[in-house]
Amino acid sequence: MLPDDVQREISMRSFWKKLIAGFVIGVGAIIPGFSGGILAVSMGLYKPTIDAVTGFFKAPKKNLAFLLPLAIGGALGFLLFMFLLDWLFADFRTAVICVFVGLVAGSMPALLRECNEQGFRRSYPLWSVLGFAAAFGLIIMGLVTSAGAQREVTPLLCMISGAIIMSGVLLPGVSISFILLNLGVYESFLAVFTAPPKLFAAAAEAGKGFCECIAASLATVPYMLFGLLGMVIIAVPMLLLVKKVIDKYHGPAYYLIFGVVAATTLGCVLQETVSVCADPGFVFAWWKPVVWAALFAGGMLLSLSTEKFMRYKEEEPLPEEAYAEEEGTG
User: Fold this and answer.
1) 52 lies in which domain range?
2) Does residue 330 sit within a domain?
């Protein structure tokens, strides 16, 4: 039996590690190019999290202690970076897209390792081809019909977007933000959650009272609720489906995801190219491709180093292990 002070140290260290991991996963869920799921995989938290949720009532106290710091960190990362991205997309959209494409390129090796974790068969790459063809076909249809235009937000669209976000969190390697970008709803969906302080400030500038400002800031709350409803509706069935498919068809499932990731990344590049070329105010300069290439490289290096660092932290021994070693040598 470990001393009480060692047990408390283990508990607190585990809590903060999971909180930080949850924050990183939450950021990955909202940033195009990152995947919350693949970050969870790279940190060794993906399957334990699914097992804890699907088997929650078998050991509720233990599973709650595991899931709570992940949930808190994930919510903080998701919300904080949502406001940051709303500002960045307004003024630096193309530059941000370049960073995001680099981020997803840097996450591909981790996804490929997960694809082959249980062995490789020659038929597996065919699933990637199938996933790529299906996803890219939908992207091309979207480009032809909307050319990257942003769709007007509606309650139904918010619900669908929420369901897509939850699906992307649960499917490792799939950047749901790329999917929302390809559907033309990413910026609109971000605006639903970042609008309240802007609406409050606008009402205050118009000379309205505090209560009126509060009422104005709540205008997008119904849309938020529909987004959350979409997440809740899809969460449980998606969790059960993902667990069953990955447990039984690990290789084909991950190779299919790999193809979808490749297609959505290429689709994001094509959509941004079409958007830039269609902008009448766009002025080409020789230095712009150089800056874009540098941002892509920086994003890729950041993704690779983040994944490597999180794997290192996951392998770092806890005080429990160090204490056991001391006891064994004492």
Assistant:
1) 7-323
2) no
